[in-house]
Amino acid sequence: MKRFHPPLVLALSVLVTMMRISIADAQSITRGPYLQRGYKSFIIVKWTTSASTDSEVKVGTSPGAETLTFTSASGTDHRVEVTGLQPATKYFYKIVSSGATLVGGDSSHYFVTSPNDGDEPFHVWALGDSGISATLSSGEHPNQAAVRDSFLNVVPLEDLSFFVHLGDIAYSTGTDTQFQ
User: Fold this and answer.
1) Which is it for strands 75-82 and 90-97: parallel, antiparallel or unpaired?
2) Which end of the chain has less Cβ packing within 10 Å, N or C?
3) E strands, the chain, where?
4) What pLDDT, on a 0 to 100 scale, did the predictor assign at position 131?
5) C-alpha Rg value of the chain to the nearest Å
6) Residue range 22-53, pLDDT digits in tens
7) How far apart are CA 59 and CA 137, in angstroms?
8) pTM
9) Do residues 96 and 104 make contact, with C-beta atoms less than 8 angstroms apart?
């Protein structure tokens, strides 16, 4: 049986500890991001991270060319008000922590600011009491998927201006796991 020398054991112990710290400190988004209170010149971006961090929201008019930066307070529940935006403009965004992009920076993470005052048509999807236990491998219930698909057959996702959920989506005690 081969024995490790004490300095080697100590070095391996330090390496394993450093790996654990590195893994523990790695950030990920556990909920969100959510876009709220969108208006012609601002929007609120909210998200939750796996560990306390001070993240940034970067915004621009094309993916990968984010020119505006807004910093969140340190913590796990983040809320950033993105201001100084132009009306009726499509903006792309990403959330960054310690220089690494957590989400976004691509063509699927965007919002469009409201137009200037005036009558603009829009589509809203409002629903409530949508919670039910998942039964499909995708994590959705067939009845929930059928409701979503029926709506999207009438109003395509790209024509949907916003979505409002009226609540009652977490049953029993309303834990983080149930909401997630």
Assistant:
1) unpaired
2) N
3) 29-36, 43-53, 56-60, 68-71, 75-82, 90-97, 100-104, 110-112, 123-127, 160-165
4) 61
5) 22
6) 334 567 898 889 898 888 899 999 999 999 99
7) 35
8) 0.66
9) no
